[in-house]
């Protein structure tokens, strides 16, 4: 574990380790408030991962360079409407559900060969369901208002992350031994969206077992970013982010335990919301949570248009929706705004890309000029321990003393856990059924100490208290989602801990909305996460609407 000089403590490790230029370069923030054992363990992990990275490039196959390909631009105007707008037009018979569903099927068939985001479709069934919707509307005698109240998403296409149970569809999370597993039921949020009239089109790719920021596995392969096919779409909801950004769906379902909604939404330039934990059910997801992980997992909406976030959340929350007071009007001018353009100087995350610092500054300037508010820049020192806090709390036992399921156990068939070192050797020979990211995570878990660091526990408690008091019921916090733009394929292995910007928000139990903010000089999405206090999800959702109007929201990757 690490401590940082940003806290004003300059007592670094002494002795042989301090004289080692490698450890000084890698871990400049290590200090004596943490045990020597914890510091050495993290240093060893860094060294071990660098060996893995070298092996990765040494043993990975090389392909001939190809001319840079680009997605075709969106041509059908139906693909440029929000789910809210589509549902209204379908109810009014201005367009049929069959037309809308077919438009999205055509788009997926056009772009998925570039992306490999959709791994299994149900298009024949979806068209039959759309025809039934059109028939229902023809026969409805109660008027448009009755349909809107009962079926607010009637006839609207829906995309689903393959980690969620969708009846009749695979639920493998990219694990080869699960290739024949088919969901017999719907996960609760999927069932609620279907009950509201949405029509599932397909399931989308994830990282192996949903625990990495690149959507890559041995069963389905690797998913590409629609803005640059040589870059990652994020993970674990990367297939969702990729196909939504490419206009292959209008709304989707994701889950987030360390940034798995927000990172894909950031890298793909769309909107996504990590809900307050405990609001949306995460039953019938794979892998199941264990230990204290259920406290940090959030299921939420992903979409291209900010106006769809709130109605989707209202539906997905089911009986818990009332806890969020989503129908309460939010006056942005009456909110208190805070901003922090970095994590305070973590020793394990990379520096923030200057373009992200600049766009966050632009957001602050527009908020102040448009709304007449004062955005206070804060320096919350505990955020620099984001990774260490996330890693510690993800490994804690539940209230009955049961520890989390080992990742190696999830990689193998029931009763037959994977052996990470053996899998590494097999991988080097091209024989492993697992990705380097999964093998590395399993090896990292083996190095985790049984007893959590008192220093990190104290840092988390202090940070929780500070942010809860800062935000209250009327505060929002602007914070980067990631220190860089979408990395190239496999490069995330070199930046293992950069997800700490999102992971720490999970551990703190705060809702956060990811908002796109235009494109970078390279044509890649910019953005930030808007964090609110517990159960104050409506605040960050309201800010998302403002930011979409101000900065333009989603951009067609084929037109850029």
Class from helix and strand fractions: alpha/beta
Q: Could you say what the CATH topology of the largest domain is called?
A: Amidase signature (AS) enzymes
Low-confidence stretches at least 5 residues in length (pLDDT < 50)? 1-32
Give me the oligomer status: single chain
Helix share, percent = 25-40%
Mean pLDDT score: 91
Put simply, the count of helices is: 19
* CATH architecture call of the largest domain: Alpha-Beta Complex
- Radius of gyration equals 23 Å
State the strand order across the main sheet: 1-3-2-6-8-7-12-13-11-9-10
Q: Please give the CATH class of the largest domain.
A: Alpha Beta
Task: Report how far apart the termini are.
Answer: 43 Å
Biggest β-sheet strands, sense, barrel: 11 strands, mixed
Beta-strand fraction estimate: 5-15%
The overall strand count is: 13
* CATH evolutionary superfamily of the largest domain: Amidase signature (AS) domain
Which descriptor suits the 3D outline?
A: globular
Number of domains: 2
């Amino acid at each position: 574990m690490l401590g940082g000089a940003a806290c004003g403590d300059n007592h670094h490790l002494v002795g042989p380790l301090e004289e080692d230029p490698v450890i000084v370069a890698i871990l400049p923030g290590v200090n004596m408030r943490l045990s020597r054992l914890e510091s050495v363990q993290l240093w060893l992990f860094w060294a071990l991962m660098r060996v893995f990275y070298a092996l990765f490039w040494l043993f990975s196959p090389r392909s001939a360079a190809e001319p840079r390909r680009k997605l075709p631009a969106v041509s059908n105007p139906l693909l440029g409407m929000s789910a809210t707008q589509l549902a209204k037009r379908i109810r009014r018979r201005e367009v049929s559900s069959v037309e809308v569903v077919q438009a999205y099927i055509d788009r997926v068939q056009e772009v998925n060969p570039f992306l490999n985001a959709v791994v299994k479709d149900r298009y024949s069934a979806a068209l039959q369901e759309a025809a039934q919707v059109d028939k229902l509307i023809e026969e409805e005698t109660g008027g448009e208002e009755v349909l809107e109240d009962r079926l607010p998403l009637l006839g609207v296409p829906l995309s689903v992350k393959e980690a969620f149970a969708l009846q009749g569809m695979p639920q493998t999370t990219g694990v080869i031994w699960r290739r024949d597993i088919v969901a017999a039921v719907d996960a609760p949020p999927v069932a609620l969206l279907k009950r509201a009239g949405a029509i599932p089109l397909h399931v989308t790719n994830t990282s192996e077992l949903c625990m990495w920021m690149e959507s890559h596995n041995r069963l389905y392969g690797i998913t590409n970013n629609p803005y640059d096919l040589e870059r990652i779409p994020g993970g674990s909801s990367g297939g969702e982010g990729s196909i939504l950004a490419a206009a292959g769906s209008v709304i989707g379902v994701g889950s987030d335990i360390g940034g798995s909604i927000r990172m894909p939404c950031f890298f793909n330039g769309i909107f996504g919301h990590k809900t307050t934990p405990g609001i949306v059910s995460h039953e019938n997801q794979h892998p199941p949570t264990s230990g204290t992980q259920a406290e940090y997992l959030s299921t939420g909406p992903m979409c291209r248009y900010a106006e769809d976030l709130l109605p989707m959340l209202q539906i997905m929350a089911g009986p818990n929706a009332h806890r969020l007071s989503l129908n309460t009007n939010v006056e942005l001018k009456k909110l208190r705004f805070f901003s922090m353009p970095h994590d305070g100087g973590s020793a394990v995350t990379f520096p923030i890309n200057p373009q992200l610092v600049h766009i966050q500054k632009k957001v602050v300037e527009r908020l102040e000029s448009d709304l007449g508010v004062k955005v206070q820049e804060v320096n919350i020192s505990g955020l620099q321990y984001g990774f260490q806090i996330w890693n510690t709390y993800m490994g804690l036992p539940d209230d009955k003393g049961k520890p989390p399921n080992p990742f190696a156990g999830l990689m193998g068939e029931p009763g037959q856990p994977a052996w990470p070192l053996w899998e590494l050797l097999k991988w080097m020979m091209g024989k492993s059924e697992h990705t380097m990211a999964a093998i590395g995570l399993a090896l990292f878990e083996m190095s985790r100490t049984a007893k959590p660091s008192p220093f990190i526990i104290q840092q988390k408690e202090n940070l929780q208290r500070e942010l809860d008091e800062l935000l209250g019921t009327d505060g929002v916090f602007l914070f980067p989602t990631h220190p860089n733009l979408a990395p190239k394929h496999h490069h995330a292995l070199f930046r293992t801990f950069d997800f700490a910007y999102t992971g720490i928000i999970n551990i703190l139990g705060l809702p956060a909305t990811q908002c796109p903010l235009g494109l970078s000089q390279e044509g890649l999405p910019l953005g930030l996460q808007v964090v609110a206090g517990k159960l104050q999800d409506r605040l960050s959702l309201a800010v998302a609407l403002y930011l979409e109007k101000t900065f333009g929201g989603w951009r067609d990757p084929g037109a850029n």
